[in-house]
Specification:
By secondary structure, this protein is α+β, with helices and mostly antiparallel strands. Helix content is about 25%, strand content about 30%. The protein binds manganese (II) ion (MN).
Amino acid sequence: MPKKTKAPEVRFTNPEKIFFPATHFTKAEMIHYYVDAAPYILPHLRDRPVTLVRFPDGVTSESFYEKNAPSFTPDWVSKAAVPRRNHEGEINYILVNDVNTLAWCANLAAIEFHPFLHRVPDIEKPTHIVFDLDPGEGSDVLTCARVAFLLKEILDKLGLESFAKASGSKGMQIYVPLNTRVTYDATGPFARTVAELLAQEHADLVVSNMSKALRKKKVLIDWSQNSRSKTTVSVYSMRAKHAEPYISMPVEWGELKTALHKKDLKAFYFTPKQALARMKKKGDLFEPVLTLKQKLPSAFMAQVSKTSRPLEAYKKKRDFSKTKEPAPTRADQRKQTEAGGRRFVIQKHAASHLHYDFRLEMDGVLKSWAIPKGVPYELGVKRSAFATEDHPLEYFKFEGTIPKGQYGGGTVMVWDIGTYDVTEGSFWKGSMKISLKGKKLKGLWHMFKIRSDGGKDVWLIAKSEKPMKPLSARDEDKSVLTGRSMAQIAQDDDAQWHSDRSPDDENTVKRIKKKRAVPAG
Ligand code: MN
């Protein structure tokens, strides 16, 4: 994050412009609302990438969603670069971390603020779950409130406290604070399971499917917001959905009950003036959403870790009763590595074609490429590196023979191991400079993605900065683990791997377990 310069003065433009014609609500009044609401809304926006919904000429004219900070964004506005989902470049999101930024955004006619469920830099970890209750044709916010209580009942049974807010549009949202290390891989399936369960039990009232036709007289529980790519309107954000401005406001369960009893639709709609008075009186009713630590049910988490998808491609391609390659251990059993998670390995692999498998430890797996001609030593030479499926960390020291007929059948040598640093760019950016400290390879290389062929990414790798002295012919064909040549490994016809995770441990080699190959079939 760039350092902020001294507190700026935000200059407002066209303050008298009418933004909500029905009530002659002006842009100046909109900005005023945000400045007054700042102590309440800012904690909920802090460090969250945000999408602004801008209405340059008010709610009756065109609007647009703005994710990327505009080119004229001043330096003092905090920003966070987040990789795009397709890995092509990144989005420079605004972080609304102070009242000046809030006022500056409001002056851009950002009536609505839609933050992500996560904060930077932990973009895989939502701090809460959100259920968006969206009324279909023939139902309304009171129907949503009924569904909200059904949802609360389930969540209560699971020991999870939940908090409701009026959306300021048509429906409501229910928030479940987490504030733990749980990721979208668990919260998404959890939200979906709960929504589908309710849709089954209350088919007359609830749907969990997006189809508009099914929604008639019912409420959609939209669980799909619990995704790394989705934003939800912020608590205390103004909404541009009606002729007059309403605020997305927390509503207590007791108040909801009363509203249901009295069939009081008005209890869900707060003008900016009412909203500010309520904030002063009640304080931030959504404060627990930021502070309450709650865990998803352990039975559910066990199910998630069993079915989690990392390394699925690796497992699918292999029959572990036949190959001696390691089967991945469960994600929840993987340990943090001693080298701080930055090891690399290059395996020389005589399969149908000889190639070098280049693997970098990242996010608990080995990101992998097949480099047919190996890593270049001289400057100005670019070699193709074909991205292959992620491999489990256990593969780090796999050396031996993969049976013929199995995927990748042939001889595998641990050609080099060591640690690496990304000194520039990133894997997700598709361009990175990596510094290798291996037993053979030392120095800086540049890797960059050039295209995707049917889902397969093709990268190039080139030597950077200065050339590396070529290895002797003997070292080119020598395992850094066992000292064996390819021919010797093929002859030994064994397979070995080792769970010790320190690549620099010289004793590793002696402790490697050798296993005789069991003839297949
Ligand atoms: Mn290979």
